[in-house]
């Protein structure tokens, strides 16, 4: 999970051009993690 998170962080730094985009991506990933844990996928 740590390696996965680190990869996501690298991708965010590369692709996000503005702070608002970074925040949006972090929020989407955060919600997605909750859904994955809740659904047990």
Keywords:
0% strand, 41 residues, mainly alpha, single chain
What is this structure, in a nutshell?
The protein has 41 residues and is mostly helical. It has helices at residues 2-15, 19-39. It has one domain (2-39).
Give a written overview of the molecule:
This protein has 41 residues and is an all-alpha fold. The protein has one domain. Helix content is 85%, strand content 0%. It contains two helices and no strands. It is flat and about 35 Å long. The two termini are 14 Å apart. The mean pLDDT is 77.
Helix and strand composition category: mainly alpha
Kindly state the number of beta strands.
0
Topology order in helix (H) and strand (E) letters: HH
Quaternary assembly: single chain
Structure annotation, total helices: 2
SSE arrangement:
Elements: H1 2-15, H2 19-39
């Amino acid at each position: 999970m740590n390696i996965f998170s680190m990869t996501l962080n690298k991708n965010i730094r590369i692709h996000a051009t503005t702070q608002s985009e970074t925040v949006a991506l972090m929020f989407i990933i955060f919600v997605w993690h909750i859904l994955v844990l809740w659904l047990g996928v």
